[in-house]
Each structure stands twice: as C-alpha cells, then as structure tokens.
Amino acid sequence: MEELSENVLDSTELINNFHKRNIKFIEDCFSEREEIKPMGLILVPNGDMLYAALDFSTLEIKEQSTDQFHSAIIDNNGIAYAIMAEGWSAQVDKKDFEKIKHTIRPSKHPDRIEIITYYFEAKNISKLVMWEIKREKNIKPFLVLILDQDNDNPDVLLSKFSGFIE
Q1: Domain for residue 28, yes or no?
Q2: Stated pTM of the model
Q3: Which of 2, 17, 120, 136 sits CB 3.0–4.6 Å from 127 for a disulfide?
Q4: Longest CA pairwise span in the chain (Å)
Q5: Which residues of 9-29 are buried (b: 16+ CB within 10 A; e: fewer)?
Q6: Nearest Cα to Cα of residue 106 among 91, 122, 119, 127
Q7: CA–CA separation, 106 vs 91, rounded Å?
Q8: Beta strands 112-122; 142-151: pairing state
Q9: Burial class, 44, CB count within 10 angstroms (exposed 0-12 / middle 13-18 / buried 19+)
Q10: Within a domain: 166
Q11: Cβ-contact 166, 124 below 8 angstroms
Q12: Domain span at 48
C-alpha cells in the first residue's frame, strides 16, 4: 500500500512540475522569440515529455492535427498534456455572441486582441491560461495575464482539445 501512495505522490509531483515548466517555457520563449508556435506536450508515466508540432493552418488540418495528438496521448499512455498556441480573442456581450458566433471570426472582429492560450489537462483537473500579447511602438512585445482558470472537471472547458485523459 505504501508503494501505491508513493507512486501517486510521484505522479502528482510529475504533473505539477510538467505544468510549471510549460508556463515558464511560454513566458521565456515569448520573451526571446516574440511568438509561440502551436504545439502539444504529453507527459508519460516515466516522466518523459513528448513534443508534437500542431498545424492550425486550416480548419480541416487543425481537426487532423487534433486527432493525431489525441491518438499520441492514448498510444503513449499520457498522464497529462498541454496545448499552447497564439490566436485571437474578442470580448462580446452574451446577447451579441449568439448573433455573431458563426459570422465573425475573432481574428476579424474590430475589438480583437492577440493572445496566447495554454490548456493543461490531467486526470480530474484542467487549467486554462491566457495572456494578451501587447505590441506597442518602440517597446518589445510583452505578455499580460488575462485568465488563469482551474477546473476540477475537464468537460467544463469543452473544446477540440479537452477530455483527452481517461
């Protein structure tokens, strides 16, 4: 019984360290390169991390990339995973969202902001973190944290990239 508890503790520690390393990677990488390429990371039981370049160039390719990443998590017995990418977001009123959700993409919305999205999931937990990318004249681009949300149930954040850990 002690061995099991020790393994659970080790697994929890691995998962926590995986998440912390990913957050640091995003902040350091953006500071150095001023961009984040779409990628997925998978944590496997022995503590190794697998990297997957993701392609979001078209909706169809994004779907294929998502399916391949999900298969890689299953095939490698992933215990946690993370996705990170740059994108666009627009803040709209709830009543307006229903009217425009299928007509205006966030990248085309007049009130859009450039963001980095990070989604992390392990068994019974998920986390969504977003930074706004500030690009101002004569200043190096920088990140401003705009969302740091924990969820006990990954289904709460229903997206193409949630619910991959069984």
Answers
A1: yes
A2: 0.83
A3: 120
A4: 60
A5: eebeebbeebbeebbebbbeb
A6: 91
A7: 9
A8: unpaired
A9: middle
A10: no
A11: no
A12: 2-157
What's the mean per-residue pLDDT of the chain?
A: 84
**Residue indicated by tokens 């997206």:** 159
31 within some domain: yes
Q: Could you give the number of structural domains in the chain?
A: 1
In this model, does residue 97 exceed pLDDT 70?
A: no
Q: Binning pLDDT at 50, 70 and 90, where does residue 4 land?
A: very low
Q: What is the mean pLDDT of residues 117-141?
A: 92
Percentage of residues of the chain with pLDDT beyond 70: 79
Helices (H), the chain: 2-33, 59-75, 94-100
- The answer to whether residue 145 is domain-embedded is yes
Assign 80 to helix, strand or coil. Answer: strand
CA angle at residue 131 from 125 to 136, to 5 degrees?
175
